[in-house]
Amino acid sequence: xxxxxxxxxxxxxxxxxxxxxxxxxxxxxxxxxxxxxxxxxxxxxxxxxxxxxxxxxxxxxxxxxxxxxxxxxxxxxxxxxxxxxxxxxxxxxxxxxxxxxxxxxxxxxxxxxxxxxxxxxxxxxxxxxxxxxxxxxxxxxxxxxxxxxxxxxxxxxxxxxxxxxxxxxxxxxxxxxxxxxxxxxxxxxxxxxx
Amino acid sequence: xxxxxxxxxxxxxxxxxxxxxxxxxxxxxxxxxxxxxxxxxxxxxxxxxxxxxxxxxxxxxxxxxxxxxxxxxxxxxxxxxxxxxxxxxxxxxxxxxxxxxxxxxxxxxxxxxxxxxxxxxxxxxxxxxxxxxxxxxxxxxxxxxxxxxxxxxxxxxxxxxxxxxxxxxx
Lengths: 194, 170
Hints:
The structure holds two protein chains of two kinds. Chain A contains twelve helices and no strands. By secondary structure, chain A is mainly alpha-helical. Chain B has a two-stranded parallel ribbon with strand order 1-2. The longest helix of chain B has 27 residues, at about 70-95.
């Protein structure tokens, strides 16, 4: 059954239909919200609010139905909620202070000695350092594997802008995680020698 | 600076048209996994969903509610509705054709009606008083007069009047 049909039934009180929609999309919404906000609590709040707003106002999705899938609609809703909460949480200051110059990266400790858990933490931090719009484009493209057109729908921007954000996000991540790239190469070389 | 406009495309150069897959970066990004969704979140969301419908006023449920109907039943109902509407429309049309034309102003014409006038016939019956004399002197027997009923017409009212003065014996 299609998402649109399920949503109609869920909006009229069919709990089973709602459960199916939730089961289909909860992973995407939660992962996206978590990676965007870098907070489990915030991601849970966003996921909760996202699905509840979908049920409270299903007509908001219906008006966009011609051009958006439920997946992109939910991503857009999660994005707006995440940005709103991040602003409220005071993340705005840090993001406004962000410079395209990569001075911050130079001051970070090298990641050479990090273990796997630490690598994960380093990646999380690096992604978290991206400006929100770049982070959004990167997460949706690299993690959730949405197309550029879909990301453009979510972000309310054109495809060219999304490409630009994605490009800059990758560049910045390569710089931030450069030590680890080298480390991985070294480890691989060592493994080959052994 | 606006929160969302910090990286507007005007401020930064555009990348190449194609988005080349960066396998190495993708693998590295894969090292960071989000936590699993807890069952408490699932439960919380389902509870909120139920509460949403429990607290909805009845009028709103009436206005926004819907019912599930099997497709054959819906099709039959639609067909019946169409047929009924068609018949109703057709009847309305035929009734409208039977409407009498506008009549001319009424004219009053006096027509003489024949009135049947009843005739009242009065008959007198006389009682003979000299019966003895008649026995003693019988008159010569003459043939009874012939009664002709050709011109007889029955009357609607028959009135009999008895004259008491004719009874001499009393």
